[in-house]
Each structure stands twice: as C-alpha cells, then as structure tokens.
C-alpha cells in the first residue's frame, strides 16, 4: 500500500502509520535488510490496525532491534497487550537510533512514548546541545529503569589500555544522530585527542562486535546496561577484547555535566571470558521511559499499572531489569513525572 493510499484512509491507527512512514527517510536507509524490515513491519501494522479499527495504537520509540531499549519496550508491550480487550489499546515497539531520535519523535508526535538516557532528557528539557536554545519543558517521565554504563570495548591486540591510547586507532562511535555518537566525540576530546587523531566509524552499535571481530575497527563506545549480550558476544569472539577504564578526572568532568550522570563500575563477574582482573570504573546514567505532557493521563496510568502489577514478569524479560523496584522506578528528577504515573504511585504508596 502506498503512502498516498494510506493518507486517504480514515482509521486513526492507519493515519498514524502513514505519518510515521512519511517521517522516515527511506532513501537514506542504505542497509537493505533494514529497508525490508521497515516495509514488513509497516505492512503488519496496517493489517493489524484494519482488524481492530476501534482500538488505539500506542507506539514506543526504542533502540535497535538487538538492544535493551527494544527488549524493554517489547516487555512493556507483552504485558500491556494482554489487557487489550479491556483497554482497547495496544502497544507497538518501533526501532530507532536511540535517545536523541526517540526524544525528537515524541516531541513531534511521531511516537507516543520513548526510551532515552536521563542526561539526554535533561539536555532537551533545558535547551542544551543538540537542542541548543530550544528547551522542551513538555517532556514527562513515566518510569525509571536500569542504569546504562559507558562501556569501552577494545581489541587486546590493538594495545589500548587508556583512552589516550586511542590515537591512530579506528573507533566506532555509533550511527549518525545517535546519542552515543555525540558522547563519543566528546570522550575522544576529553582524552586530549583531536578527532583527526583517530579514524571515526559511524556504524550502528549493534554492528560493533562484528566489526571488531572482522578487524574493521579497534575499539567501540557503547552506553549499555549490564549484563549485555553484545559485550558477551565480543568476549567470545576469536579476537580477544578488554574493557577500558575511565580516568577519575574524566568521570568527575562527566558527572558535572548532568545531575543524573554518576560514577559507576562494570562488574566483571558478568564476563569471565573477558580478561579484566577488576571491576572497570566508568560513568552510569539512568534509562527513562518517557512521553509528552499531552499524553492521556489514563493511558499512562494504565501502562504503569500493568507493568508494576506484573513487575516479577517484567523483570524476568531481561537480566538488566532484574533488580528494579517500585521505589527505584518512581524516582526521577531529570524531568517531571507524568500525572498518570504520579496517580499510580500515590495510590500504591510509592509517592507521598
């Protein structure tokens, strides 16, 4: 079905699909597989929407299809959609390049909800680059989830032990437009290097382990919750890897940037196949499930209620979700909680 044909349909869910397709820059999608997946997913959404014309489709902007944002979004959808007959709403997970794209898509109404790093929401809400001079005070938190940690994976044969050793090396910093790319550039500069001192690779983070194994890069930066299957995969590859620590001065500099960036460490008990003797010092930032202030209070309340009422099931969907508690998930300071989330947590004693 063409975009022109979709635009003529009256069903609001079909119109939402049309708006999403219209916003997608398909000519720039050079990965053929990604194009095929987008077409198949769009066709599936259109078919499903036509069979339930009265049900409201709720979209969540997540990360790449092998990432934890996507898995977390799918876990929310799995739980919420079991009540579709009662709520007449259904949740759909949509792949993206991550925090920055998810924030912009929620602000523009392309998606209803999204996942983002807390520091990205902080910047967007206060008009800090890449939202320079344009503060978005209308972003609202729904749930705080796991902590993402800056993880620097390097090939052992590349002789990288500190960030200054990146000079002359090939570094994947993530796809254009991703929050990891912006952070990666700043990290290189904070190590006293210029961008000309390294060879920058701009591939999706989901490709990083393969690129390292194929000797197309020497290291990559990754903001991810642990344990991470991607990092485990890198450890099992024929080309041995190590995790690179951050120096204390860099940790302090990053922590001063946002109230939600804090000193952290990566436990190596998750990765016995990687040859780091001790926990790796780094920085961590919470991941936030968020929406727009105009999102229906009842919709947010229903989603929070279903997730929290089935918290044991939700935590079992991904290892990084295992330690979540109601107190932790309601504790957000970077942007205000949505009234629907406040309502649920007050009803259950989670907020005063």
Let me know the average pLDDT: 85
CATH topology of the largest domain: D-Maltodextrin-Binding Protein, domain 2
CATH superfamily of the largest domain: Periplasmic binding protein-like II
Overall spatial form: globular
* Tally of alpha and pi helices: 15
Radius of gyration: 20 Å
Low-confidence stretches: 1-11, 17-40
Major β-sheet profile: 10 strands, mixed
Q: How many separate domains make up the residues?
A: 2
Please give the number of β-strands: 10
Q: Which features would summarize this protein structure in a list?
A:
disordered N terminus, 10-stranded mixed beta sheet, 352 residues, globular, D-Maltodextrin-Binding Protein, domain 2, 2 domains, single chain, alpha/beta
Q: Secondary-structure blueprint of this entry?
A:
Blueprint: H1 3-7, H2 12-23, H3 32-51, E1 56-61, H4 68-80, H5 84-87, E2 89-94, H6 99-107, E3 113-117, H7 118-126, E4 139-155, E5 170-172, H8 179-190, E6 199-201, H9 208-213, E7 219-224, H10 229-236, E8 241-243, H11 248-255, E9 262-266, E10 280-292, H12 297-309, H13 311-315, H14 326-329, H15 339-347
Parallel strand pairs: 1-2, 1-3, 5-6, 5-7
Antiparallel strand pairs: 3-10, 4-7, 4-8, 4-10, 9-10
Compact description:
It is globular and about 55 Å long. It folds into two domains: about 5-145 and about 290-345, Periplasmic binding protein-like II (D-Maltodextrin-Binding Protein, domain 2); about 150-285, 3-Layer(aba) Sandwich (D-Maltodextrin-Binding Protein, domain 2), CATH 3.40.190.10. Helix 8 links the parallel strand 5 (about 170) and strand 6.
């Amino acid at each position: 079905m063409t975009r022109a044909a979709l635009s003529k349909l009256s069903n609001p869910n079909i119109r939402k699909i049309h708006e999403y397709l219209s916003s997608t820059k398909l000519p720039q999608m050079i990965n053929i597989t990604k194009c095929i997946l987008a077409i198949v997913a769009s066709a599936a959404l259109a078919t499903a929407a036509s069979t339930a014309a009265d049900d409201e489709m709720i979209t969540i902007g997540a990360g790449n299809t092998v990432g934890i944002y996507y898995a977390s979004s799918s876990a929310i959808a799995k739980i919420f959609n079991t009540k579709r007959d009662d709520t007449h709403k259904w949740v759909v997970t949509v792949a993206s390049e991550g925090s920055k794209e998810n924030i912009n898509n929620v602000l523009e109404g392309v998606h209803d909800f999204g996942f983002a790093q807390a520091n990205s929401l902080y910047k967007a809400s206060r008009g800090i680059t890449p939202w320079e001079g344009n503060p978005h005070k209308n972003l609202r938190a729904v749930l705080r989830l796991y902590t993402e940690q800056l993880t620097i994976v390097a090939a052992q044969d590349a002789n990288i032990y500190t960030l200054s050793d990146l000079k002359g090396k090939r570094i994947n910093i993530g796809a254009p437009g991703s929050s990891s790319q912006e952070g990666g550039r700043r990290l290189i500069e904070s190590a006293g290097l210029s961008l000309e001192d390294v060879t920058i690779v701009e591939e999706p983070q989901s490709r990083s382990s393969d690129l390292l194994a194929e000797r197309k890069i020497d290291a990559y930066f990754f903001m991810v919750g642990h344990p991470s299957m991607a990092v485990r995969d890198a450890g099992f590859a024929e080309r041995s890897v190590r995790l690179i620590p951050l120096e204390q001065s860099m940790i302090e500099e990053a922590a001063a940037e946002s109230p939600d960036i804090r000193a952290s460490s990566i436990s190596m008990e998750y990765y016995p196949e990687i040859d780091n003797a001790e926990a790796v010092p780094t920085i961590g930032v919470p991941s936030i499930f968020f929406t727009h202030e105009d999102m229906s209070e009842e919709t947010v309340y229903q989603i929070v209620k279903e997730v929290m009422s089935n918290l044991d099931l939700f935590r079992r969907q991904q290892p990084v979700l295992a330690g979540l508690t109601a107190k932790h998930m309601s504790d957000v300071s970077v942007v205000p909680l949505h009234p629907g989330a406040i309502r649920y947590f007050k009803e259950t004693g989670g907020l005063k």
